[in-house]
Amino acid sequence: MTQEEFAVTCKELIKSYGHGETKITALRGVNLEVRSGEMMMLAGPSGCGKTTLISVIASILNQDNGECKVYGHDLNHMSKTERIAFRSKNIGFVFQAFNLFPSLTAAENVAIPLVIGGMDIKEATQKGCELLNEMGLGDRVSDVPADLSGGQQQRVAIARAMIHGPRLIVCDEPTSALDGHTGQKIMELIKKVALDETRAIIVVTHDSRIFSFADRIAKMEDGQILKVVNSYEEFED
Predict the structure, then answer these.
(1) Are the beta carbons of 221 and 45 closer than 8 angstroms?
(2) What number of CA atoms fall less than 13 Å from residue 187's CA on the CB side?
(3) DSSP label of 148
(4) What are the tens digits of pLDDT across the range 116-174?
(5) Which is it for strands 91-94 and 73-74: parallel, antiparallel or unpaired?
(6) For 92, which of 26, 69, 101, 111 is 20 to 30 Å away at the CA?
């Protein structure tokens, strides 16, 4: 597989926070490759660097050293304007806390990436309604987040992450606030609606109940990838 066929390539990534005695190194030479068409899960204990890693991949944070490319593009070498433009077109992010705007309807929340991209708000909201209908929320498009269940809010957050057709979707603990049954339904939905041969999905999770949805699982500890495996059984070995 060539460099261009990988959705993500990370080489010797290092990221630290703070200085001097308070300095914490979150990533310690991380190497990772994520293929187009796969769901990669990042698993490991709290504080091992999973969220930092996906934040670097999504260009929310800049690494201190090393290289991270998304579909062959090194975002760390782009200008701020170029990076924002690339991210808005190519990357969707599902936040752990959903991060929905409380005063906007479900459809309006989903439409945000399209509006940021320059689409007319009415057209963008209509497209948001269409995607929510596809995701089983056609009767809730006019509801605000407070009127939705946790699982419904998560579906809105997922729809917002994919409305603009990104090639990479990054999910931070998408099932952490959900019961087991709802979590399974959310993962089924992500795999069915969001994953195809042209798109990659990276999922950060503590939830071993959803490991079966992964094509591969990367085990992280102390800021490093220890191994990348194909199943929960290999992960536990």
Answers:
(1) yes
(2) 28
(3) S
(4) 889 999 999 999 999 999 888 999 999 999 999 988 998 899 999 999 999 999 999 88
(5) unpaired
(6) 26
